[in-house]
Specification:
With about 80 residues, this protein is mainly α. It has a domain of about 30 residues. It contains 2 helices and no strands. The longest helix is centred in the middle third of the chain and has 46 residues.
Length: about 80
C-alpha cells in the first residue's frame, strides 16, 4: 500500500468528518456510500459474467444451389418466344 493510516490518523479523520458533516448526516453518508459500493460491485460482477459467457454460435445462411429451370419452365419460355 502506498500509504498506511494508523489509529491516530483514523481518529483525526473521523473527528474532521464529524465536524464538517455533523452527527446527523454522518450515518446517512455512510449508508449512501455503502449502497454505492454494493451497486458498483454488483455491476462489476454482471459485466464480468457477460464477458466470461461464450458468444452464441452464429449460423450462416445455407447456400442454396442456383435454381435450374425445370422442364415445364423451359417449355413455357419456348412457347412464349415462338
Amino acid at each position: 500500500m502506498p500509504f498506511s493510516l494508523g489509529p491516530t490518523e483514523m481518529i483525526f479523520i473521523m473527528v474532521v468528518l464529524l465536524l464538517v458533516f455533523g452527527a446527523k448526516r454522518l450515518p446517512e453518508l455512510g449508508s449512501g456510500l455503502g449502497k454505492g459500493i454494493r451497486e458498483f460491485r454488483r455491476s462489476m460482477t454482471e459485466i464480468k459474467g457477460e464477458m466470461d459467457r461464450p458468444e452464441p454460435q452464429i449460423q450462416s445462411p445455407r447456400q442454396t444451389p442456383a435454381a435450374t429451370p425445370t422442364a415445364t419452365e423451359t417449355q413455357e419460355s419456348a412457347n412464349k418466344s415462338g
